[in-house]
Amino acid sequence: MSKTPDRASARPHGRRRAVAPNRSALARAAKKGTDRFGNRSAVVALSLGLLAVAGGGAAATANSADLARTASVTAPSASAAAQTPSPSQPGALAQASSDARATADKAAADKAAADKAAAAKAAADKAAADKSAADKAAADKAAADKAAADQAAAAAAKAAAAAQPVNDPAAAQAYAASRLSAFGWGQDQMSALVTLWNKESGWSTTATNASSGAYGIVQSLPGSKMASVGADWQTNYKTQIDWGLDYIKKSYGSPANALAFHLAHNWY
Asked: Cα–Cα distances in Å, from 122 out to 116, 119, 127, 128?
């Protein structure tokens, strides 16, 4: 007949009961790892505890020691790698600094070139303005000099005319003969004109009728009528003759007709 096994006495031989890991040691290890290496050490410590519980015994303890040593070697390396600057960083910083200096130098050079160009343009504009002002001043001076020269020439001509004889019957008759064609007459009218103005004034430029005030070769009444031809009507026989021929043309048509009227009325 079978016996009911005694559970108290049924204990397998040759086995050790799993030894629970020293929780105090694990906690200290976890804390120490956390203090030195941060979260990664805490994870390693937790892993060690789990392995000790699951595997048990000396193997778990050995594995825990190995993992702790691994963590103690790996974690500082990772931390050092994180803290140590990459060998390429100093070169990159130097390159960036060199690029910044090159950019600044180029900007300064561009500004200097722009300033130089602006100064050159300002100088050119000033030179052009100065030349324009000088040209204008020269033109104004030339115009003023010409006006002065013209005025001097006119004064000289007037003085020369005043120096000529006022009364010159021969010259006056020669001038009258040269002007007949301008009024549409031939030289056959010259003899009648000579006779007419001989009777009036004797071809004297300054002839004056004491009773009437008629003046000059043509005996204009008043003499100021001849001012319509020239302001020098009192002294210039040419002015008087031009006015007299125009008067004959409009009043009688020809010197011959004017002479016929004069002979009949003693005036014309």
From this structure: 10, 5, 9, 10
